[in-house]
Amino acid sequence: MLGQQSRDSLRLLARIPPIPFFNLQKLPRSQSTTLLLSASKYIFFVLLLINFRSLPFAWHIRVFLPVLRLRLQYYLLRLRILFKPKEIRTRILADWGEGLCPIGANPFELVAVQHGWTSVDDADYNGHLSNSSYAKVLDIARLKLVLKAIPAFARSGGWMALGSTHFHFIREIPFLRSYEIRLSIGAWDHKWMYLIARYVSFPKNGHSDITYKLPVDESGQQLGTNNDSAGLSKTPTTSNDFPRILLSTPAEDLTTPATPGSVTEADSNLQAEKTAKAMEGLAAAQSRMLESDGAVLHCVAISHICFKHGRITVPPGVILPCEGFSKPPSTAAAAPFSSTNPPPHWKKAQALRVAPSGSMPAFAKFLKGGWRDVPGDERWWEDALDGPIEEQRKANIEVLDSIRKGMEGARFIG
Questions:
Q1: Alpha helices in 51-166 (DSSP H)
Q2: 113: burial class by Cβ within 10 Å (0-12, 13-18, 19+)?
């Protein structure tokens, strides 16, 4: 016999309405099909939203967005001056185009920054920025640097060709982490220009929470910190130091025997051990590098590009002075070069493409080979980048060109 309390509980449960649920097998065929289509539609739109940056033409829009912005600014300017006299319109448009040039800038100090983040479609199965995504976003940064560094060359009909890119991965970029690509000019020769890209991020707590245990030598001292150039400097880095190449490494102390025949097995083992420790110290020192603003370095990429007008290659040493790049003033007390205080060669560069003495077709003709007809003592573009700029270029090219030659030599191995 159930007690009075049990009977009351049963009556209470009987009053609770049944919980509805969908049994697709008992539903009519049309209703079950509608539910499946509705669910599939929402799943489809969620997938599109997650992977919107990999949709058709999304990459093209991201790459050419800086060009579209400049085009929009140009057409808006033309619209604003539509009712002005023709001579005034021509002068305003010419001033706008010349104002895009980096007048008086040091080519090694110009930096283009591209922001990004590790989205679902850019991540690999480990939850890090995938190796292919490094190259995909670098295309965007390269075009941004070109528009910032050589706008006059682009306006004249020139274009950029990519020769190769070498990546050195130091540390992974985690999922959903924001990062920056800091792209700068490293060096150039008669044909190629070398660009240095640094992938960096800022930790959420404002400082790096990753620690590294460096290898130690026989005396117990950590490798990679005994030399001034190997460890982290406590002196703030200036903008002049940003694109410079460090030529000193822990591997410089290694010695090579004069004759291979005199090498004993013990010497060989000792040399191999020193080499291994030096490389470990170099890798560890690189992996713990911080930028001057505290950003963490994840990857360094070296690209070498060339500039074309049609099928004609234009030397970077001719293009850069035409854009306004210049060596610093000869005296430290002098004001730095800028758009309000242009370098001495700037008027000669403008005379090639700005009316009344020049035009864009005349400038394009000069770039295509007209510069070769200028006598040697009148080549103002060579004087514009000599002195400290030329010294830095030679020092950087010695390192950067070896990467290109090494990759080209790899084609003949095997």
A1: 58-80, 86-99, 131-149, 151-155
A2: middle
